[in-house]
Amino acid sequence: QVQLVESGGGLEQPGGSLTLSCTAAGETRSMYFMSWDRQIPGKERELVARISMFTDSTTYADSAKGRFTISRGDTKNTMYLQMNSVKPEDAAVYYCHAQGYIGSERYDAWGQGTQVTVSS
Fold first, then answer.
1. Residues 12, 18: contact at Cβ < 8 Å?
2. How many CB atoms lie within 10 A of CB 56?
């Protein structure tokens, strides 16, 4: 399958910027989409942004549009989330997520998560 490792979380002041990184290993050519999802305690995990591994087309949650940018690195196994103008409500655990197929079997792979805290 695919193994995902995130990095780059931490504490940022409101209005500041953070960059999250995710590195994929394993059967990375089986991935169809990579995304960033986030979860606040007591709430369901939600999609923040997603990128196609074939076309690089992107999708954003309304809360992320205009402030966050998802992209892939030159190796195509690395994904980034550039977070600008962060708000207190962006504080959450951010997860790297990959979806794909191995043969006819669909899978979802998740990283361990990285904490983002937004506070002055």
1. yes
2. 11
CB 1 within 8 A of CB 108: no
Element (H, E) at 61: none
Q: Contact, 110 vs 93, CB < 8 A?
A: no
What is the H or E stretch that residue 43 is in?
none
**DSSP code at position 6:** E
Bridge partners (DSSP) of residue 105 are 102
E strands, 16-113, are 18-26, 31-39, 46-52, 58-60, 68-72, 78-83, 92-102, 105-110
pLDDT at 76 over 80: no
In this structure, which amino acid lies at residue 17?
Answer: S
Cβ atoms of 20 and 8 within 8 Å: the answer is yes
Phi, psi of 15 (to 5 degrees): 90, -10
pLDDT in tens, 53-67: 999 999 999 999 999
